[in-house]
Each structure stands twice: as C-alpha cells, then as structure tokens.
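Review session, final week

We close the course with one last complete record, chosen because it touches almost every idea we covered. It is ABC transporter permease, a protein from Streptomyces osmaniensis with 217 residues. Go through it on your own first, then we will talk.
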Amino acid sequence: MRVSFWEYLGNRHQQLFADALQHASAVLQCMVVATVIGVLIGVATYRSEWAGNFATLTTSGILTIPSLAMIGLLIPIVGLGVAPTVIALTLYGLLPIVRNSIVGLRGVDPSLVDAAKGIGMSRLTRLLKVELPLAWPPILTGIRVATQMLMGIAAIAAYASGPGLGNVIFRGLASLGSANALNQVLAGTVGIIILALLFDAAYVLIGRLTISRGIRA
C-alpha cells in the first residue's frame, strides 16, 4: 500500500536510524584512518617539491576512479561487505587531506620554525609542537571536504553489501514503480544529507575548540 513520505518514515524509523548509524560509523572510521595516513604522507613529502607533487598526483589519480569500478575491483580481492567499503572510502578520502597537509605545512612561517630550532627543539618536537598545530586549520578543512565526499560515496557501498543508507536507496531504485520505491530513495538521500550537515557542524565545533583565535584571525 502506498503511504506518504512522513508515514513511511514513521513506519520504518528504527531501521532507517540503524542504517544511518552504520553509515555514519563507516564514514567516521574511514576518515580516522584516512586522516592518519594522509597527514603522515603530508609530513613525509612536504619538504620536497617532487615528493609533494607525486603524493598529490597519486591521490588525485585514485579519486578519478569511479566508485562502482573501485568497489567492483575490490570484491574479488577482499570479498563483499565491510572490507571493500572501508578500503574504497579510505582511499577516496586521502586527496583533500594529503593536499591540505602539504599546503599547511609549507605555509608555516619559517621564522617560527627557526625560532623553535634556536631554543633547542628537535625536528620531531618542532613538527609536533610548532608546524602541525599551525598547519591544523587547512588540514581540518581537508578533513571536512573529504568527509562530505565520503558521505555520498559510502552510499555506493550497498553494491558490495556494505553498511549504511545506500541499501535503502538501492532497494528503492531496484523496485522503481512499486508503491514506496520513491519514499525509500528519498529517505536514504535525505538521511545522507542530514548526516553530512551534522558532521560538518561537528567539524566547525572542533575547529573552534582546537584552533586559537590568533591562528583563525
């Protein structure tokens, strides 16, 4: 029986909420991994023009691979389910983080680094206490951009039996013409948009808590 969109949400709210939690969890976990890898790549390559360009070019190349093709290529290797989803999302999240890490670290005022060196800080200490904190604003921007991308790409994970709201969308698309197909597609799409807005609001709050007013200015 055909029902209105709001009635559909009321009848399926528990399942939709569970799918939304899975979607958010998958994106969050992949973003943590992508952030660690991306920042490490940025730290390893920002001092060299050639290495930085190579890292950016490589991660740009990954992003040009269609998401369906990426997941399809991973299925024979790692199987269906969570594994291809995690690998694909992590790879797709690298470019904004790597690029912004390199840009942020290269943008640190050399005089501040020299001052830190002058008071006896080691290279690692300078990186952790001076360079990375000053480069954090652009790095956080890269994380925000990557998260917004992955919110949409994660929906494709349903192709590989992955978790999230993509399953709702795919079920609706597979049954177009049936009573509530459009409600399914709309519910999954709206859910992803809401999650993206919530994540972005969280990043704004993180920025306010972790970036000093002097750096923001």
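Two points worth writing down before the exam:
The chain has a mean pLDDT of 89.
The first helix runs from residue 5 to 45.
Good luck, everyone.
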